[in-house]
Amino acid sequence: MRSGLKWMFLIIGTTIGAGYASGRELWQFFGHESGLAILLFAIFFSVSCYVIMYVSYKKESSDYLPVLRAIVGDKLTKVYDVMIFLYLTTTTIVMIAGSGATGQAFNLSYWWGVLIITACLIALFLRDINGILAMNQIILPLLIGGLLYILLLFINDQGLNVWAHLHEQRNWTAAFPFTALNILPLIAVLGAIGNKIKSKQEIYVAAIGSGLILGTISFIYNNSLIQIADELLLYEIPLFAILKHYPVEILIFLSILLWFAIFTTAASGVLGIVTRIQNRWNAPVWILASAVIIPMIPLTTVGFSALINYIYPVYGILNLYVLTRLLLYPLWNGKENRRV
């Protein structure tokens, strides 16, 4: 159970980044009439996590390439290898930009936010993957608890009924691109820990637990944003549209947690890149991390919301094939085994 929770927090830390925790990513894909879509997302997400971790466990992998090859096949491995590398790079850039945007919310220079997260990421990798796992086990419970607290408080204060529109579910297809969007980073991160997973029980705990938690938060969060839909155009970070109703102390607390959500996802992205290139360049992890992160800094000037609005939907669509392979894994894997 304890090991399973450790991997569960790694999964959630990879998924709840700047786009998700800020509400921008949820609003981009869901919004009105999306209750069924979020339920399907929770199911698809749990199944996908289970398959990725199972393959990683069987392969005893230390990077994502063997896992990717088992999922998409030899012919498409090179294509998706490049896609994962580009995805991790752009996602990490989004996280660094998100740190700059969070700094601006406190009237700090954008570049101070960027430099702080850069220095913290490099320092984190002085302890290799153990630093990320230890950080997630401390930060993620605080982040999940804090986010749920403010959302439930907002729903209660506004007298909202989150079940009011359950009969309107025309946006159910959004579950597919939204789940697909989060698949590639999970392959990258979970592929790096295959040699550290000890049993299938850990996989069950991590896969089911992460799906339940993310599904619950997504449903509550999305329904909260629906109530203030007209105001969201005025905010770079939708969460701040909710926080404006509360004292500045809550704004500061949630903003700090938001920054840590950004930080954990950036760390997961760098981990995926570093473990992939470590086979070619034998150097300390923190040096490889520095070589990866520093060139990204100038690219963050594109803007946080612009990156999410244009890059995320494109990746969500391109990853639909991978999602299909993961969801149908028991069928096609069973056929291949029978052929052998």
Automatic annotation (TrEMBL):
<feature type="transmembrane region" description="Helical">
    <location>
        <begin position="109"/>
        <end position="126"/>
    </location>
</feature>
<feature type="transmembrane region" description="Helical">
    <location>
        <begin position="314"/>
        <end position="332"/>
    </location>
</feature>
<keyword id="KW-1133">Transmembrane helix</keyword>
<feature type="transmembrane region" description="Helical">
    <location>
        <begin position="7"/>
        <end position="23"/>
    </location>
</feature>
<feature type="transmembrane region" description="Helical">
    <location>
        <begin position="175"/>
        <end position="194"/>
    </location>
</feature>
<feature type="transmembrane region" description="Helical">
    <location>
        <begin position="78"/>
        <end position="97"/>
    </location>
</feature>
<keyword id="KW-0812">Transmembrane</keyword>
<feature type="transmembrane region" description="Helical">
    <location>
        <begin position="35"/>
        <end position="57"/>
    </location>
</feature>
<protein>
    <recommendedName>
        <fullName>Membrane protein YkvI</fullName>
    </recommendedName>
</protein>
<feature type="transmembrane region" description="Helical">
    <location>
        <begin position="250"/>
        <end position="274"/>
    </location>
</feature>
<dbReference type="InterPro" id="IPR038728">
    <property type="entry name" value="YkvI-like"/>
</dbReference>
<keyword id="KW-0472">Membrane</keyword>
<feature type="transmembrane region" description="Helical">
    <location>
        <begin position="286"/>
        <end position="308"/>
    </location>
</feature>
<feature type="transmembrane region" description="Helical">
    <location>
        <begin position="203"/>
        <end position="221"/>
    </location>
</feature>
<feature type="transmembrane region" description="Helical">
    <location>
        <begin position="138"/>
        <end position="155"/>
    </location>
</feature>
